[in-house]
Design goal:
mainly beta, 4 helices
């Protein structure tokens, strides 16, 4: 039901899935079990024009992973007339792309040729058909289980608190051309990672084992959410919820891809809303949400100081 309302449910709970938004709503939807399955069909394309680095062609490709199915489930149970227990499992987001043509391989080939021949002398078609690091892609999936207690403090007001248990899976592949931007590879191969050198294409290059092509890795974490819903005027209801950062364990196999040693926390956020029912058969709901991505160090981190190759 939340999807049909564009997610504007922080002040207008509809079903047991409200535990994913505002724990106060668990006490307001009655005893029920809800299941959901969403189909998601994003179309992603990527392109890179090698002419800006001395090449003669444009690399374009479309991700061949386009269909995703996102499950969800919720249950609410009464402990007493005013105290309710709820469990809500939901997908929190993610990203999954896979390109058969590695844009970074082809641009790296052009850069190496440019260093050898000069930008004006790069052979036509340089880079096409290269396969230094294979397919290019990333797969991130996040799911959260919210265990909730919700209490009616007044016939028209309720509060709630949830313990959040997060799990996420991550895989990246085809990023071998970024080896010189890891501390391990840059220190192991100072000559190969110096300006004008061939970088990861150098014979005998020793790269980091914690950057790419390590398969799926799992991380787990905990957080909390609090919320309130109350009717302040006849037919006018306010709601608000705050979710803490979910502190996740590290992706050790990708600790030189993510800043802060491989830790990718799920960001904190808050959401407030108002619902107005001018008619018995008509309800208008408006929500505002802010997500604090900049507070997640692996995302908000400014990164290494700019240099020709590698961190400084």
């Amino acid at each position: 039901m939340a999807t049909s309302m564009a997610g504007a449910t922080v002040s207008a709970p509809q079903d047991a899935m409200i535990g994913a938004v505002n724990p106060a709503g668990i006490a307001l939807v009655g005893e029920r079990i809800d299941l959901s399955l969403r189909a998601f069909n994003p179309q992603r394309e990527a392109s890179l024009d090698t002419r800006v680095v001395g090449g003669s062609f444009k690399v374009e490709d479309r991700s061949d992973r386009t269909w995703f199915f996102i499950p969800g489930a919720g249950i609410t149970l009464p402990i007493s007339e005013d105290l309710w227990l709820g469990f809500t499992m939901y997908g929190n987001g993610g990203m999954n792309t896979s390109y058969s043509r590695n844009l970074y391989d082809e641009s790296a080939a052009v850069l190496r040729a440019s260093a050898q021949f000069g930008a004006a002398g790069v052979p036509v078609g340089t880079g096409t058909g290269t396969a230094d690091t294979g397919r290019l892609g990333v797969d991130l999936a996040q799911a959260i289980l919210a265990s909730t207690l919700s209490f009616k403090i007044h016939p028209k007001h309720s509060i709630g608190v949830s313990a959040l248990f997060g799990v996420q899976s991550f895989e990246a592949y085809g990023l071998g051309n970024f080896q010189c931007f890891t501390r391990t590879a840059a220190s192991n191969n100072p000559a190969a990672c110096s300006p004008g050198s061939a970088g990861p294409a150098t014979p005998g290059f020793t790269g980091s084992k914690n950057l790419t092509d390590n398969g799926h890795e799992w991380a787990f974490g905990i957080g909390a959410r609090v919320g309130w819903i109350g009717e302040i005027l006849p037919q006018v209801t306010l709601g608000g919820a705050y979710t803490t950062k979910i502190y996740m364990t590290q992706f050790d196999d990708y600790k030189e891809l993510f800043a802060e040693g491989g830790r990718l926390d799920i960001p904190a956020h808050f959401q407030v809303g108002i619902s107005v029912r001018p008619l018995q058969s008509l309800q208008l709901s408006f929500d505002y949400q802010r997500i604090f991505y900049s507070d997640v160090k692996s995302i908000g981190n400014q990164g290494p100081v700019a240099s020709a190759f590698g961190p400084s």
